[in-house]
Specification:
By secondary structure, the chain is an all-alpha fold. It has one domain. It contains 5 helices and no strands. The longest helix has 14 residues.
């Protein structure tokens, strides 16, 4: 939820998208259920993630000396 809150704060999601995504996540009992989120909401999350560089952060090699 923290990530979608940040997306809202950065105006990358509308208040309605944020509400719908949050509600979907809250009612989902598993990651598999979250993956069944409607395509329009996934597209909004993907666009916001791209702007935020989330994929780049996840694929960046660890810093030397970090554990």
């Amino acid at each position: 939820m923290k990530t979608i809150d940040e997306m809202l704060h950065l105006d990358l999601l509308t208040a309605d998208q944020h509400r719908q995504i949050g509600a979907w996540i809250a009612q989902s009992g598993s990651p598999e259920e979250i993956l069944k989120m409607p395509a329009s909401l996934w597209q909004a999350v993907e666009r916001a993630s791209e702007v935020m560089g989330i994929d780049k952060d996840l694929t960046r090699p660890p810093l030397l000396g970090s554990s």
